[in-house]
Amino acid sequence: MSESMNVQPFQVLFDWILKEFEENQSIFGIHRSLFYTPRADSPYSSTIFGQRLATPIGPAAGPHTQLTQNIIAAWLSGARFIEL
């Protein structure tokens, strides 16, 4: 799969994020209104490895989840436990 996944320079990704957010109020296709904002009284909150998690869900390890875009998209959607 390495021939189909190419590393993007940080500046390219950062510029992409800034431009898309400025123009569309979204990041990697996720609109600002859908960004997950954890609440202090969240019923999904839990503790793992001695650290509080706003939500105990997230993507499992795999080549596609290792991509920066997918890690950011998962975080914006509420993932707080990201297996790398």
Task: Write the topology of this structure.
Blueprint: H1 10-24, E1 26-27, E2 30-31, E3 46-48, E4 51-53, H2 68-76
Antiparallel strand pairs: 1-2, 3-4
Labels describing this entry:
alpha+beta; flat; two-stranded antiparallel sheet; 84 residues; 29% helix
Question: Summed up, what is this model?
Answer:
The chain has 2 helices and 4 strands. The chain has 84 residues and is α+β, with helices and mostly antiparallel strands.
Overview of this structure, please?
Strands 1-2 form a two-stranded antiparallel ribbon. A two-stranded antiparallel ribbon has the order 3-4. It has helices at residues 10-24, 68-76; strands at 26-27, 30-31, 46-48, 51-53. It has one domain (10-76). β1 (26-27) and β2 form a beta hairpin. The protein has 84 residues and is of the alpha+beta class. The two termini are 17 Å apart.
Q: What is the domain tally?
A: 1
Low-confidence stretches: none
Number of helices, counting only DSSP H or I runs of 4 residues or more: 2
The radius of gyration over CA amounts to 15 Å
Helical content stands at 25-40%
Approximately how much beta-strand content do the residues carry? 5-15%
State the oligomer.
Answer: single chain
Q: N-to-C SSE series?
A: HEEEEH
Give the overall shape.
flat
N-to-C CA distance: 17 Å
Quantity of strands, as a count: 4
What would you call the structural class?
Answer: alpha+beta
Main sheet: which strands, in order across? 1-2
Profile the largest sheet: 2 strands, antiparallel
Mean pLDDT: 87
